[in-house]
Design brief:
Layout lengths: L16 H11 L4 H18 L8 H12 L19 H21 L36 H10 L3 H13 L3 H5 L6 E2 L4 E4 L8 E4 L2 H13 L25 H15 L6 H14 L4 H8 L4 H4 L1 H5 L1 H18 L10
Antiparallel strand pairs: 1-2, 2-3
Helix pairs in contact: 1-2, 2-4, 5-9, 6-8, 6-10
Length: about 325
């Protein structure tokens, strides 16, 4: 039974030579949270398979997929979001990606002779892409309506909280980017902020609405404890951790309280980010500009906001039908039944 072992200053270990070497290798390439996620995925895989890496075959991988799809809490319990009983397809796909990466490493090292994780369920001769091992349905994320956004902002109690929510709702920053913002990152003269802790370690400079700087000035003047010595912008305002950097749990608690007071059923940090880019697209902002604002490495990730935007598809459809109406005669409608 593999056990995760943590030693300060070192990557996590599972007690298996080649898996631990892979984790040491990947720790030099990825951020700590990504390494931790990979270590947990590998722990789950080898717990289920019960074999060392050199003994894993394709049949073991397929059996692992079946096991992950089994009901977690009995046959009568399903997730409301997708009606499924086992783990989410996206979770299984992520774990398979981690296992695939491990065996790619072992192939490069000459430890294994072949990759046990099949690329697809269809022979390559029949299809270039093949049928995926796990089908993960693509669902559109939730966004806030203009009324919900106004209600949420009105339910916030401090200028600190208004500044943080403004960064997510009107500039599209991630939760970790808001919490990692430093005083030196504020570019007041240009109306921008420097994001140095973006996803994957990427940096970018993004413009921010004037309202953020108004809330920020009020927070720094009247709320931020003068004795705190951290360079981070957002800190705890009261309690035993007063003056210390605000945590992710603390920001989530702020949003949960505001949601309750505003009577909203949803308004997570990531939903605020989705709302920002949806509204920017509705206002006509180019996808490439939204990509730069969001810090997306791939434009395909940004294309989701085409579908979240209410007017884009309808406008495209009406323009196309207008062209077609000039080619084909109009359809005469008969009497309705």
């Amino acid at each position: 039974m593999p056990q995760l072992v943590f030693v300060e200053g070192q990557p996590p270990r599972l007690g298996e030579q080649w898996v631990d070497e892979y984790l040491r290798f990947t720790a030099a390439r990825l951020r700590p949270n990504s390494v931790l996620a990979q270590a947990f995925d590998l722990k789950v895989f080898f717990t289920v398979v019960g074999k060392p890496p050199v003994g894993v075959g394709t049949a073991d991988v397929l059996a692992f997929i079946e096991q992950q799809r089994e009901p977690r809490h009995g046959g009568n319990v399903v997730r409301l979001v997708d009606g499924e009983q086992g783990l989410a397809a996206s979770t299984i796909k992520r774990r398979l990606a981690t296992v695939t990466s491990l065996f790619d490493y072992l192939l490069a090292r000459g430890v294994c002779e072949r990759q046990p994780v099949p690329r697809s369920m269809t022979p390559r001769s029949r299809s270039l892409r093949g049928s995926p091992l796990v089908r993960a349905p693509k669902r559109l994320p939730q966004v806030l309506s203009p009324g919900e956004a106004v209600a949420l902002m009105g339910a916030l109690r401090t200028e600190r909280d208004r500044a943080m929510v403004t960064l997510m709702l009107h500039a599209g920053l991630r939760r970790c980017e808001v919490l990692g913002l430093r005083l030196a990152d504020i570019q007041l003269g240009d109306g921008r902020v420097f994001v140095h802790q973006g996803k994957g370690g990427h940096e970018r400079i993004v413009p921010v609405v004037d309202a953020f700087f108004t809330h920020l000035a009020a927070y720094l003047t009247t709320e931020r404890p003068p004795e705190c010595d951290t360079g981070l912008v957002f800190v705890v305002l009261k309690g035993p951790r007063r003056g210390m950097p605000l945590s992710a749990a603390g920001l989530d608690e702020v949003l949960a309280g505001a949601r309750g007071r505003a009577g909203l059923r949803h308004a997570t940090c990531h939903e605020l980010r989705h709302t920002c880019f949806t509204r920017l697209r509705e206002a006509g902002m180019a996808l490439e500009a939204i990509q730069a604002q969001a810090g997306h490495a791939n434009l395909e990730t940004t294309r989701i906001y085409l579908h979240l935007s209410n007017d884009w598809l309808a406008d495209q459809y009406r323009d196309a039908m207008q062209v077609l109406s000039d080619i084909y005669p109009p359809i005469e409608e008969g009497p309705r039944p």
